[in-house]
Amino acid sequence: MSVTAPTGFSAAGIACGIKDGDRPDLALVATHDHRPVAAAGVFTSNKMTAAPVVVSRRHLAATGGRAAAVVLNSGNANAATGEQGLADADEMCALTADALGVHPTEVLVCSTGLIGFALPMDALRAGIPRVADALAPDGGLDAATAIMTTDTVEKVATAVRKLPDGSVFTVGGIAKGAAMLEPDMATMLAVCTTDAAVEPAELHAALERAVSGTFNTLTVDGAQSTNDTVLVLAGGAAGPVPGELFVDALTEVCRSLAVQMADDAEGSTKTVFLRVRGAATDAEAARAARDTANCQLVKCSWYGEDPYWGRIASEMGAAGVTFDPATLTIAYGDHVVYRHGEPVPVGSGPGLLDAGALADYMTRRHLHLTVDLGQGEGEALIITTDLTHAYIDENMRTS
Amino acid sequence: MSVTAPTGFSAAGIACGIKDGDRPDLALVATHDHRPVAAAGVFTSNKMTAAPVVVSRRHLAATGGRAAAVVLNSGNANAATGEQGLADADEMCALTADALGVHPTEVLVCSTGLIGFALPMDALRAGIPRVADALAPDGGLDAATAIMTTDTVEKVATAVRKLPDGSVFTVGGIAKGAAMLEPDMATMLAVCTTDAAVEPAELHAALERAVSGTFNTLTVDGAQSTNDTVLVLAGGAAGPVPGELFVDALTEVCRSLAVQMADDAEGSTKTVFLRVRGAATDAEAARAARDTANCQLVKCSWYGEDPYWGRIASEMGAAGVTFDPATLTIAYGDHVVYRHGEPVPVGSGPGLLDAGALADYMTRRHLHLTVDLGQGEGEALIITTDLTHAYIDENMRTS
């Protein structure tokens, strides 16, 4: 399953001592024969770029989009670590390359955890040869476990597609991400693999399309990470496949991983699918949806299961998009609370708001909200979460 | 004191039944002789504009900047209330005008409280004549109390300036604002009065200058209100005054009210003065400061008294401003934690970080953070707060 579902890949996850208490913190995903294959990456646009992001970008540029392995650690982000951080990320790749017998530029590297602390390189020098030894064709779940930070469950996904000749190809993925989930991208790492044969340029274009409709629709707290990375390796054992079919399978894996992240976001009790339609443009719909999804007051009301639509209306008005209160309509599930600029009266019967049914709806784990701005054809979906006491507990102290 | 400190103004605050339990919820500020005087207002830029904002803007336009009174209610924002809301705001002005013997357009109106509910007009029809009867030259504090929502203390300020001839003039103010404090402006209402003689156009310009350096530097949760209003009435009893001296006094009153709001923000345990310097421009400094001030992760770390500067560095990198990690410096008070792109080593002595002293510093109620981007001369100050369990308690349910 996951990154080891496609033919040609091995993975492993071990505890090497970055985290306390023997918790898994080092993962490796590699081609089975350690041969470099087509690879592509999409990275955070945060300018406070973490060292592993800098190094992985360099390596993809140096190889023209080829890689044999991805080494990942949790428990330390290797971000805001200055020159030492870059040297450490380089050394992680060199250690992995030595263990696998490949060139260091054929190794990509990801780190996740606290910002601002030097990596414990002794632990990694001992750990990387061990994780390489542990590589196994069924090691995907171990790798998924070893990249968890405040995640409570590992995140894995697999998509299989049949080709006209009856053969199949597979896309698999692992991911982590619990807080700081904000479009482009989220504090998240994801590694996908496929046995489809896809050239590097095509692979990169497919990854960008898959990410834009999935990970980039996700926001938890509006914070944009220093380390966001999504990588994909295409081994080719299944041969060439139609481009659109590949994008479709890769998107399915990314979407599944994105929803798993929202469901497991730090302290969250609700996953909210907020759809804005009727905007002047798609971009305005996305902006209004994202602003509202990141509003603390709105997030608190979801946690309280309170259908306080007034705050949503207020955020829509403050989002800087084409807006007229008189054309605004808001619904929680099928319950329309505000229609064309007027609150819907509470009562039972057509055109009235059934307050009891709405209260029941608010208790669900997944909420679907729809806001129609009544201004045009623009539409966007944002996946987000509530803001809870547990989120604060998780984030008020680093130790 | 407050709005009744300047010669020529009366005020009152009563309970009229909008809130439960006989809590004050209706305020009136008026010229002592009910004569219209110069008036100016600055309002929210939220397009989901509340009815009282629409009506007050109309009245100032109709009179060319003159008003005899301001009527204010708490407990209901009269926002997202459609046509009925506009009719109700108009009626509040008409009732006040009747009670004082002035024209309805000479009355300004403010509401604050929950969004999306029709005003209880019966309570206001009975209450407005009563609050007019209660007008008193020492009623400023009563008025300040009657506009509180989740505020825990009333907010009042007074500034007195001496003129070259030995005479004085006074500016007074009252305000409310506990959550949704976000630049331009904050969910806040403020009414200022002065006995200086200032013409409407000059008064408006002075108010805009005073607000930009005070209320507009304040952000609590990034939410922009439907009802934000700052009004000023200039009675003229103290005669003409130098323009700069008037701006100075008005700014002092606005700054005092703004800091009182931050100190009393919903659930906050810290007021944080975040100064960004060394930005390419002042606008970039303000943007980086505001983004960081509104980051939930950063706010949680202040609540936890955790000097986790890594998140601040991450936000600066994500703010979309001119940025280079290598020139970044971050300090909590006098404690430099990150200098020119490298973490400052912990230890005692010059150039090292005294972790114990920093931990002591973090326990203070007011924190002063400085971020130097090292890119230019741009500078900005943002006043903000932490994110706490109590904030969530306050905002998870409307009732």
- H/E element string of chain A? EEEHEEHEHHEEEHEHEHHHEEEHEEH
The CATH architecture of the largest domain in chain A is 4-Layer Sandwich
Q: How are strands sequenced across the largest beta sheet of chain A?
A: 4-3-10-9-8-7
Largest interface (CB < 8 Å): A-B, 62 and 61 residues
CATH superfamily of the largest domain in chain A: L-amino peptidase D-ALA esterase/amidase
Low-pLDDT residue intervals, each spanning 5 or more residues of chain A = none
The major sheet of chain A is characterized as: 6 strands, mixed
Helix content class of chain A: 25-40%
Shape descriptor of chain A reads globular
Integer-rounded radius of gyration of chain A:
22 Å
Question: Count of helices of chain A?
Answer: 11
**What kind of assembly state do the chains in view correspond to?**
homodimer
Structural class, from secondary structure content of chain A? alpha+beta
How much strand of chain A? 25-35%
